Recover the amino acids of this structure.
């Protein structure tokens, strides 16, 4: 696997800001495009064609599933969309779709431009025939999804070190840079300093499906930004021995 790292905390912060700007620019582009389409529809589409016009936000795709967890599925051919499957999948677990060739149809909204809500999905059998395995029959619930605007609410923990608990205590939503490691049945985030050396560890009590999905989607990378809810501090006796700083719930992991 490739080992790709970002350059420095200052550079990482700059990249984060740049990504936010690009994200907002993309959103603005979608808004403008939607406005143009709306004007075009008003001029060219008759009332009898209104049903067809309402399908402008439909995306059709065909490709291979490369990551999946919970209700989230990643197909590179959809060019950046995170596909959401809400209930009713014939195979039950989206993980069974990994490396399968699929084709389907979904819809996106201006409110969540990175999300493609799946309407139907087919899988290619060994015989070469396509078989339908999903048709949406319920509304999508995204209770763990975090968009770019919400990520801005998470405070960057600077100069985080295991023996300085004032750095994290009293804070709730934070983000740190490091790598996720599994130790037995538990997960730890290894927090890295500017020189990519371990500054301390964070004990992960819970991981959302969305965070888990993104870690699998970005499988070629081993370092991420982690978005956390801070919980209780580890007792000093254990902290100075293990470098474990505090407990947290992992809400999202990504490159920015």
């Amino acid at each position: 696997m490739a080992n790709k790292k970002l350059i420095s905390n200052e550079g990482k912060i700059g990249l984060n800001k740049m990504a936010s700007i690009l994200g907002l620019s993309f959103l603005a582009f979608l808004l403008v495009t939607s406005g143009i389409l709306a004007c075009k529809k008003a001029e060219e589409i008759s009332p009898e064609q209104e049903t067809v016009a309402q399908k402008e936000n439909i995306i059709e795709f065909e490709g291979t599933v490369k990551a999946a967890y919970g209700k989230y599925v990643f197909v590179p051919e959809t060019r950046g969309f995170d596909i959401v499957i809400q209930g009713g999948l014939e195979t039950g677990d989206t993980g069974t779709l990994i490396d399968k060739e699929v084709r389907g149809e979904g819809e996106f909204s201006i409110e969540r431009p990175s999300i493609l809500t799946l309407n139907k999905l087919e899988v290619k059998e060994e015989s070469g025939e396509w078989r339908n395995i999903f048709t949406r029959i319920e509304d999508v619930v995204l209770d763990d999804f975090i968009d770019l605007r919400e990520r801005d609410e998470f405070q960057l923990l600077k100069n985080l070190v295991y023996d300085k608990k004032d750095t994290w205590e009293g804070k709730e939503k934070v983000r740190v840079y490091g790598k996720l490691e599994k130790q037995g049945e538990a997960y730890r985030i290894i927090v890295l300093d500017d020189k990519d050396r371990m500054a301390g560890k964070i004990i992960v009590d819970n991981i959302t499906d969305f965070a888990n999905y993104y870690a699998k989607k970005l499988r070629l990378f081993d370092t991420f930004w982690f978005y956390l809810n801070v919980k209780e501090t580890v007792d000093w006796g254990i902290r100075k021995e293990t470098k474990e700083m505090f407990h947290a719930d992992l809400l999202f992991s990504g490159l920015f």
About this structure: The chain has three domains: 6-56, 57-142, 148-254. The chain is about 25% helix and 35% strand. The helical segments are 9-44, 50-53, 148-151, 209-217, 236-242. The radius of gyration is 21 Å.
